[in-house]
Each structure stands twice: as structure tokens, then as C-alpha cells.
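Risk register update: the risk of archive-format incompatibility is retired. Evidence:
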Amino acid sequence: MKLTTKLLAATAIMSASAVSAVELEVTHWWTSGGEAAAVGKFADAWNATGNTWVDGAIAGSGGTARPIIISRILGGDPMAATQLNHGRQAEELIEAGMMLDLTDVAEAGGWTDIVNPSSLLDSCTLDGKIYCVPVNIHSAQWLWLSHDAYEKAGLDVPADWNEFVASAAALDAAGVVPLAMGQQGWQQNLAFGAITIAVAGLDAWRDVTVNKNADTARGPEYTAVFEAVANARELARDSNVQDWNQATNMVITGMAGAQLMGDWAQGEFSVAGQIEGQDYSCLPGLGLNAILDTGGDAFYFPVNDDPEITAAQKELAALLISPEVQVSFNLAKGSLPVRGDIDMAAANGCMQKGLGILADGGILPSGDQSLSADTQTQIEDLMAEFWSGDMPAADAQARYADLIASAD
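Archived output:
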């Protein structure tokens, strides 16, 4: 099919339901300041078509929102569209026939030609059919550093994770919490994953996370990881906040020296009016590896019996991945676009670093793409216990290896 034909077909799908305005309830867990600004770009674009975006924000993290979303779908009260992470979270719902097949929309829009990396679209595909629209690339391996905090400590801003660890004592002496960390398992697991790649290296990480090799998880590379995480746990002892954006605010206000958090933290710095390179620094791969995972968010559309709603769902799916919406949303979100054919010249320095790594092929699959939701939850529970208490590193490693051995 020629590109012009694809564009005409995509336009037809996007305008099919515009004859009569349709309200679509869209659920998501984007509720922080930066996230709300970003999701507002989606809502504005949909409302501009003459339709209505009914915002179904669910307070809390994805771990809080996903059970609510899934319960509604299973209970016969589905929303029109919902955010999930592209990966395996909707696998059982798709197999049960409860998610709308978007293959015709994807073919009309030429998604296979524009989605980069292609693994994002693969994660939306089951048995050759496409069931979600990827909207961004989120990577977890970022270290965010406060210039104000380091000025208080009389130190230069670190260039990598090792320099940060070495600076922790001086930060503490200056009354600055070295490491901001929210008290939630998913945040602690994110930090564990970022430290793993930095300490154990890519081969060991891939062998455990992708190949599920429990022997490697019990080996010396991961012993070093758990010892490094135990050290990081001590650096975060005085970080008495719950949510990730509260931890980000500690960095923004100079109360903490650094935070391990995904690139979505960038939205909070933007809302706070902070300037990259002047007020804060960002280190992808913790400054040690020019590598990022390619997780992120996608939208799924539960099946319904109303043809008008179905047409509108497909119109929204096409809109979310359109060039203009991809640019406006991702600039606000701090994430990278899923399209490889759009101009991101307006992106700040942090996003440009990420785009450079993406262009060079320095990417890994995310945990959501490699591990089932059940395994991810078990690991998050372990990390919450490990970070919040005094569990010896060796005990945590042994339990983690057991989880990998039984991972699906």
C-alpha cells in the first residue's frame, strides 16, 4: 500500500465519527502536575475534533490504577479507552476478547513504518493483531541532580552514579538528603533496575530479566548489585515521602541531592520552571551506560456494543499517534515520541540525550515487556520490604533469584 493511500485511509478513520460528537471516558493514572499538563494535550486534541474527552484520572500509581481498570472491564463497566503500559498487562483481557482490535487503524496509519523501536508495536500485538496504540517511550535509567543541593555542599555536580555515591557524605553534612526515594515498591524496583544495569552490566541484566537465568541472579554480578542497592537504601533513609513526584520535588527544592526516576520526572521540573543544565542535571544510564529501556504507555480500547463508540475509539487511537499530538504530548510529558518521523527540535537537553541514545540503538526492553505482571508485582513487593527495613543484601538476592527461577 502506498503511503498516500495509507494517509487517506487514516484520515477516513479519524473523520468517520466526527459527524456526530461522541463522549469517551478515558482512564489513566497521570495525576502529578507534569502528567496532568501532558494528558491535557490529548484531551485538547480530542475536544478540538468536536468530540468530548471525559477524564477518568485515578489517583496513585499504575499499581493502584491497574486493578481498578481491569476490575471495571471484567465487571461489565468498561471505559472507552484506558492507559496501560505496553507489554503483558492486558494479555489476558485480549485473550478473553475484551479489547478492541485496532489492526485496521494501524494498517491505515502505517504504524509498522513509523513506530520506533518496533518492539513497542510488537508489545501491542497478539496472534498477528494489534490491540493498543503506543504513545510514548519512557525509560527508567535516569539520575536527576539538584544544582542547589550541590552548591550547598560546595561540590561540583556529579557526572555519574559513582561520583554521586562519593558525594553523599558531603551532602549529608550540608543537611541535604543524598537520595530522594518514595516509599512505594514500584519506585524502589525502578531504582533497583537502574542500579543493576550500572553495576552488573548489560549482559548480566539481559540474562536475568530477558532469559530469566536464576543462576546469574545468584551470581557475583548480582551480589554486587544488591550490596550497591543496600548502600543506596542508607542514602535514602531520610527521604520521608510517599509519591514519586514528592521525591522529585525534594530535588527541585534542593532538599535532596538526587533521585533515581524515569524520564517522566522531567515534566515536574518543567512545571516548576526549572532549566536543564542550570537548575538540574539529568544523567541517562546514570552517566555510566549510554543505554535506556524502552517501556512506556499505550492506550487500549475495551470492546463495546455501540458502533458509534467503536468508530470514535478508532478515531481517538489514530489521533493519539498523529504527528502534532505526538510532539505536543511528549514535550509536556518528558518522554520520547514513538514516531521516528517527527521533528523534536524543541526538546530540551535531557530529551535530546534520550533521542540520541535511541538513534544510536542503545535500547533494552523494559521489565513490563519481559516479565509478567504477576512476577513484576512480586519483585516490587520484595523491593519494598528490602528498601524499608534492614534485610541483608544476601537474603534479598536469594529471594530475588527464586522469583526469577519461577518467572513467567
